[in-house]
Design goal:
heterodimer, A: 288 residues, Jelly Rolls, 4-stranded antiparallel sheet, B: 195 residues, 5-stranded antiparallel sheet, 27% helix
Chain lengths: 288, 195
């Protein structure tokens, strides 16, 4: 063995060589690892998306359905504020509602068309970073039967009558209600009124109320008398209630109609004051 | 002459540590992936049960002829709701009360005797025999809560039902609370007490 051989750092021939990974091998390994990681992450992300998006869509559908159910529970007249023309419905965030009073146009005029409220609810949700919309729609038909009422306030309307009524009907002592039926209708007008009676003094005066003196009421529709005048004794029965019917031929659909009740006493004796009064109109659709 | 060369102790230790880290990383990823899938399945399950509960309420409330849990017209929230409705929900006879039965939707505490956890149930009460039968709508493992809400301004026959429940785990980016809320309309009766 020579001195040179002793100091040589080289490995003997046929010996095992130690090799590190080359840059290419490391890069390939890292790439494969990254692909695996990214695949897993993409799969998880896709899974979450597939979970969340139907959930968001379902929540939007729930919101829309809730608004529509609320609208369907409301009345035709209650859905739209007449003064503003806008719906009275309150809607949750991300939702809009469009309510329109409309009618099926048969081309024969409003009196024969069928009015209804159309309701369209849109609720938004996000899918793929794009805002999408769930839309539901429904209708509330114009009611087959409807009531209009008009109570009079005796605290602010102290209508006092001393003289016998002698003018042309319906006169000035009236209860009035105005309404607009949208379809051909039959009407029933209900009214009741109560009066305070004050007799004159002294008791021997000739203009004292007599048991035969009457309180007369009569209903008018669009200034035309309907039914017959009704009289009740003032002294013994100072309240009166009555019902009269109005045929569909007298009712004007689509425009304002006026129902009026005139009340008066048939004598100049005594003094009567309106205490309380109500007028109610029941409208039923005339589909003949 | 061939000189065999083995790993040194240091090399072995480093290799073992790297291997352990790699295995731990892969295991962690696997566990994470499994948990994510599991929580997604749990969330889907909870949604299904809540939908089922709301659908059940809609079907039974629709034909209610009497509401025993009247809510305040000024706005009130109840945690249970009882109605008298049709025994056969597909045969609606609002003018006949002899074929009706009582339904109460409530959270039963505890869901099962001797166990913890509450569940959302529908309790059917026979008005003649007073026999009760409960059906679980949302499992106790989801800790469901239910609210029946009447708000001022809503129609008197309109009810908002809110169900909240919790999953054990939550997918990344989501909370573990799930909420469903729907409006339900009753046809034959109001839910508010008259003033």
């Amino acid at each position: 063995m020579t001195k040179g051989m002793m100091t040589s750092p080289a490995l003997p021939k046929g010996g095992r060589q130690c090799r590190a990974f080359s840059l290419v091998e490391v890069m390939v390994g890292l790439t494969l690892f990254a692909v695996a990681i990214v695949s897993v992450m993409v799969a998880l992300r896709q899974g979450r998306k597939m979970l969340v998006e139907p959930e968001n869509k379902g929540l939007a559908w729930s919101r829309a359905q809730s608004v529509l159910e609320k609208a369907l529970a409301m009345s035709y007249a209650g859905l739209v504020d007449v003064s503003t023309g806008k719906t009275t419905l309150t809607v949750p965030k991300d939702c809009t509602v469009n309510v329109a009073q409309t009618h099926m146009d048969k081309g024969t005029g409003i009196s024969s068309d069928i009015p209804y409220c159309s309701i369209k609810v849109d609720c938004g949700y996000t899918e793929d970073n794009v805002t999408k919309t769930v839309s539901l729609s429904g209708i509330v038909p114009f009611p087959y039967m409807q009531i209009y009422s008009q109570p009079r306030d005796p605290l602010t309307e102290h209508v006092t009558v001393t003289a016998a009524y002698s003018g042309a009907p319906p006169g000035t002592n009236v209860m009035t209600i105005k309404f607009t039926p949208l379809v051909k209708s039959n009407l029933m007008i209900f009214y009741d009124l109560a009066i305070d009676v004050t007799n004159v003094t002294p008791a021997t005066a000739t203009n004292q109320l007599k048991p035969t003196d009457l309180l007369i009421t009569r209903a008018y529709f669009n200034n035309t008398a309907v039914g017959i005048p009704t009289g009740t004794p003032i002294m013994t029965q100072p309240t009166i209630g009555n019902v009269v019917g109005v045929a569909a031929s007298a009712v004007n659909p689509g425009v304002e109609n006026i129902a009026t009740v005139n009340w008066y006493k048939d004598t100049a004796n005594g003094i009567i004051t309106l205490k309380k009064a109500n007028i109610i109109v029941l409208r039923t659709e005339n589909n003949k | 002459m061939r000189i065999p060369k083995a790993f040194t102790l240091v090399e072995l230790l480093i290799a073992i540590i790297i291997l352990m880290m790699a295995v731990a990383g892969v295991m962690g990823m696997s566990v994470f992936a499994v948990l994510q899938v599991k929580s997604q399945m749990e969330r889907a399950d909870i949604q299904t049960q809540m939908n089922f509960a709301l659908e059940d309420m809609k079907l039974h409330f629709m034909s209610a002829a009497r509401v025993d849990t009247l809510l305040d017209a000024g706005g009130e929230t109840a945690t249970s709701f009882t109605v008298l409705g049709e025994k056969d929900i597909y045969t609606i006879t609002p003018n006949i009360t002899t074929d009706n039965t009582g339904y109460t939707y409530m959270v039963r505490t505890p869901c099962y005797a001797g166990q913890t956890g509450n569940c959302l149930i529908r309790r059917t009460i026979d008005p003649v025999t007073s026999v009760q039968a409960d059906e679980v709508l949302v499992d106790a493992r989801f800790e469901p809560k239910v609210e029946f809400i009447f708000s001022v301004g809503n129609p008197p026959n309109y009810l908002i039902v809110r169900i909240t429940a919790k999953t054990k785990t939550a997918p990344v980016g989501l909370t573990n609370e799930v909420l469903r809320e729907e409006g339900i309309r009753l046809w034959f009766v109001d839910i508010v007490s008259p003033n």
